[in-house]
Amino acid sequence: MRIIFRLLFFVGGLCVCTGVQAVCVPTLPIQVDDPKKGPWASDIYFKTSSTGRGFTGSKKTVSHADVPMLMATRNGKLYAYFQWFPGVFADDRKYKRYFDMIGLRISPNKGKTWTMTRAVRICGLPAKLVNKRNGGRPMDPSAVQLANGKIRLYFTIEPGFDEEAIAKAYSAISTNGRSFRYEGESFAIKNVDIRDCTVAKLRKTWHMYCPNWKNNGRGYHATSSNGVRFKRTSDAVVGGKRNLLGNVVEVGGKLYFYSGGWVAVSTNGSRFRLLHKRGLPGDPGIANIGGKWYGIEAH
Fold it and tell me: How far is CA 119 from CA 65, 125, 255, 298, in A?
């Protein structure tokens, strides 16, 4: 879960393509009251499991990043998306223009090595969503690979400092997983902030989940036939005092949800059955390649 923070230094700008004209939208000044407290103080670590129950390893994959998401492509590559916060500390000050942008690292060999961190580019974002007054910016990434090999990215656009604005889920499409073209609004609920979504396809239906932050074992649930426009359906149920905050992945005709140290499974996308409490803590990213599980977590 992201927080809204305030000003300390300017961090360059985000280039946004609107039609044929490129518009540079400056990132609002950011205040980091304490470099050791906040999402910029987290690092992302990579772990593996042969069963999905109990992960080993603790390899630092990204410094100064939070809300990670992990996606496996059909050719066995791992794509790690996250919110990137370079520039707070001296070791990455030269990248401060990318502060609070979505970042990406790719592993061609199941986590043994990773590409350098690159900022994700989303062209075609409407200027009204990312204008300087509101300070809107894409955040909280979730990604899926389509049957044609393209990658769709889902994200929230932070409403910024407009107290009446409501966060919604949006999507963008890409052929390489880094440079995206904005598609539009994917999901919204009137008077409700939609954040931290996760998406997976079960048979012919795409399922989106978002936490409701009520700790009541339920979460917002929406479905789609095309993966672009989602319609709300009955809340997803997992039971207990759990929020549906985390990462969902389809494996063998079932949906597996990893969140806060617990793992649940569903055969219909609506009701989840708790499997065990040996997953990954917090808001993790999860992927499966050939029966082996891969995860990333931020702390």
Answer: 12, 16, 29, 18
Residues shown for the chain: 299
Contact in structure between 188 and 166 (CB atoms under 8 Å): yes
**Residue 62 to residue 145: CA distance in whole angstroms:** 22
CB 197 within 8 A of CB 209: yes
The half-sphere exposure of 63 on its side-chain side, counting CA atoms within 13 A, is 12
- The CATH number that domain 6-32+45-53+62-294 falls under is 2.115.10.20
- The chain-wide mean pLDDT, for the chain, equals 87
- Phi and psi of 128, rounded to 5°? -65, -20
Q: Residue ranges per domain, the chain?
A: 6-32+45-53+62-294
Percentage of the chain exceeding pLDDT 90: 70
Distance CA 197, CA 214 (A): 16
Could you say which DSSP state residue 271 is in? B
pLDDT digits (tens, 9 = 90+) for 1-26: 554 443 333 334 455 454 433 333 44
